[in-house]
Amino acid sequence: MLNTPKALLFILGALFIVNSVLLFRYQLSLRGFQNAGSDSLEIFKGTEESSTETSRAKYQQRVGALQRASVDTLEASNDKLLRYDSLTTTDVDALEHNYLLLAHYSQQAEDLNPPEEYKYQYGAFSSGITELYNSAWTAYTLAADPISATKEDFWAYQDHLVYAMSLLVQSNRALGQNYKTTEGLDLPTGGTLQPI
After folding, report:
1. Helix H or strand E encompassing 41
2. Could you tell me how far CA 182 lies from the centroid of its own chain?
3. Is 53 exposed, middle or buried (0-12, 13-18, 19+ CB in 10 A)?
4. Is pLDDT above 80 for 90?
5. Residue 47 lies in a domain
6. Does residue 8 fall inside a structural domain?
């Protein structure tokens, strides 16, 4: 039955509607964050016009602030996921807030214009922040739909976190800095804890 054109069109239409609703909710949430005057949402405003205008120190400061805010946000989600069996609707709302906030931080990381000598570092940094967002999204989906959560979903969450840590450590080394990462974080595994 699923190989009929009507069924395929129905499924594609349903996916389109779900994606549209999620995008709309995301945009509303960001507007709500901005209207609420959240100072933590904007790590920095605007991007530099060219890499010649961006000094190394200013770029590193921005990377450090954005990385710290992103890791702190992910840690808040992880702390909630450690109490997976006793999550409340308030916790699920906080997990949603965190993944939306990390989507914003991920966009800020992509909008950075690094100096030429930091192009390799920037790739690792930007990808690391994106992996933190992926982790937060997975944490939210685990909490929002606990009936369909599987052990593999927890493993996917762990994989995103471990990969994010690896990328952020690479970024730190390239900058010669020791900015906060997810290293040493206790990870929920659907019943047991495992530190990374």
Report:
1. none
2. 12
3. exposed
4. yes
5. no
6. no
Cβ neighbors of 96 (< 8 A, separation 6 or more) are 29, 140, 144
Rounded distance between C-alpha atoms, residue 87 and residue 67, angstroms = 27
| Cβ atoms 55, 98 nearer than 8 A | no
3 state SS of 183: coil
DSSP class of residue 85? G
Print the domain residue range for 178. Answer: 55-195
Instruction: Say how many CA atoms lie within 13 Å of 62 toward its Cβ.
Output: 23
Q: Look up residue 65 and give its amino acid.
A: A
Query: Is the confidence at residue 107, as pLDDT, over 80?
Result: yes
Whether 17 is in a domain gets the answer no
Examine residue 128 and state whether it is found in any structural domain, yes or no.
yes
pLDDT band at 59 (very low <50, low <70, confident <90, very high): very high
Total number of domains constituting the chain: 1
Q: What is the pTM of this model?
A: 0.71
> Looking at the chain, how many residues does it have?
196
Lookup: tokens for 48: 């530099």
